[in-house]
C-alpha cells in the first residue's frame, strides 16, 4: 500500500511483457500532470493543488469533486485521464447528494513486444470513499472528524497483449477519448450554407452588373448628347465624380487598419494551408498557437508595407507615426487582454499562467522581430509607393451631400454587411468554437479553406453592393463606410461567442470566463480588421472600374 497522490511519480513494476526501450523487470514511469474542472478546458492546475496530501482541507476536496475535477497522468507519452472522485445527485424529495473519493485505481496497459501501445485507468469495480459533511462521522472504516480525513491510496496494474504495432499507436489513441466526442459533422448543414452563399453571390453580381450596364449606357448617351450640366438632373453616382476620390479623415488610422488586416489575411491563409498539408498534430492545440505567434511576428512586414505604402499614396506626411500606430493597433489590445487573463490565471494558481521567462521571450519576439519588421516593411512601402491612381480630378471645394434615407445610414449598412458574412460561416463557427473552447479535434481543414474563401468573397461582394448604393445617393464618404460595413462581422462573432458560452457550453467560473471573453473579443477584432481590409480594396477597385468606364472631360 502506498500513497498514490502523495508522491511525484508512480513506479509501476512490470509483471509481464516488455516496456518500450526497457529490459524485462524494469520500471514504467507514470508522471502526475494536472487536474481541472471537466467543463472548463482552459482551467487547469497542478495535481498537488488538490488537498490530497493535506488532510485538514476536506471541504476543498469535496468542492473539487463536485466541480467534476479530472486528473491527467502521462505514461510513455500516453495521456491517462480519470475523475478525482464520484458524484451522485438524485431525487427531489428526499434529495440525495453523495460525494466520494476514488482511493484505488486500476491501470490497464496494452503492449506489443517491447512497446507500450495504450494505457488507461479504470474504477469500474472500485467503491469510492464517501466524504460526509460535518465532523465525528465514520464512513466505510475511514475516520472523518474535525474536518480531517485519512485514507490509503492503492493501485493495481493489468497488462494486455496487443497486435497493433507501435507505428500505429496513434490510431488506438484516436479511437479512445475520456472526453465526449460531440463534434459530428453535419454535412447537410454545411452544404446548405454553401449553396445559400453561392446563390447570394450570384444574385448580387447579376443584379449589380445589370444595373451598372444601364448606368453606363445612360451616362455615355448623355455625354454624347452634350449634356454639360449634370447637376441639373438626378444623375446618381456620376455627379460626384469630382468628390469620390477625396481623401478621408484619419488617414493614418485607416491605413493602419488596412495594413493589419492584410497581415491577418496573410497569417490566416498560411495557417490554414499548413494545417491542410498536415504540418500540425491535430491532438495538440498548442502547435497551431505557437505557429500563429511566430507567423504574427514574421508577417509584421506585411502590415508595415501595406499601411505605409497607401498612406504615402494619399499624401500622408507623418509616416513614422503611421508605422508606430500600425505596430500597436493590435499588439497593444493583445498585450492588455493577455495581461488580464494571465493575471487571473496566476492569482488562481492555474497551470495556464505563463512563467516570467515565457513572457520575456514573447516580448523579445515582438521587440526584436515584430516591430523591426514593421519598420522595415513601412520604409520599403514608403519608398515604393507611387501616386494614387484616380481616374477623376478632385475639386477643391467639397460638394454638399443630400439628406439620406434611413436605410442608407451607417448602422443599417453595418447590420447588413456584418450579418451576411457571418451567416456564411455560422455553421463552421460552431465547430471551431467546439475545438478551441472544448475538447474536440478539428481535422476538416479543406472545408475550412473553402469556407474562408467564401467568407472573403461574400465580404467583398456585399461591400461592393453597399458602396454602389451609397454612391447612388450622391454620398461620396465611402472610405470608412466600406471598412465598417463588413468589418462589423466581428460584432456578430462576439455576439455569437456570448450565445455559445451560455447556451452551447458548460463553462463557468472567473478563470474560464475571463479567458473566453477576453480572447473572443480579440478574435472578433481580428475578423473586423481582416474583412474591413478586404471590403475596402474591393470597393476601391469597383469605384475605379466604374469611373473609368464612363466618358468624362
From TrEMBL:
InterPro entries according to UniProt: EMP70
Keywords, sorted A to Z: Membrane, Signal, Transmembrane, Transmembrane helix
One GO process term, biological-process aspect: protein localization to membrane
Superkingdom of origin: Eukaryota
Protein's membrane topology: Multi-pass membrane protein
Keyword set includes Transmembrane helix: yes
Localization per record: Cytoplasmic vesicle, Autophagosome membrane
Transmembrane segments annotated in the record for this chain: 187-209, 253-280, 292-312, 319-341, 353-380, 411-433, 445-471, 483-502, 522-547
Assigned GO CC terms: autophagosome membrane
Signal peptide span: 1-19
Chief location bin: membrane
Biological function: Plays an essential role in autophagy.
Protein family (similarity comment): Belongs to the nonaspanin (TM9SF) (TC 9.A.2) family.
Protein known as: Transmembrane 9 superfamily member
Lineage, broadest ranks: Eukaryota, Metazoa, Chordata, Craniata, Vertebrata
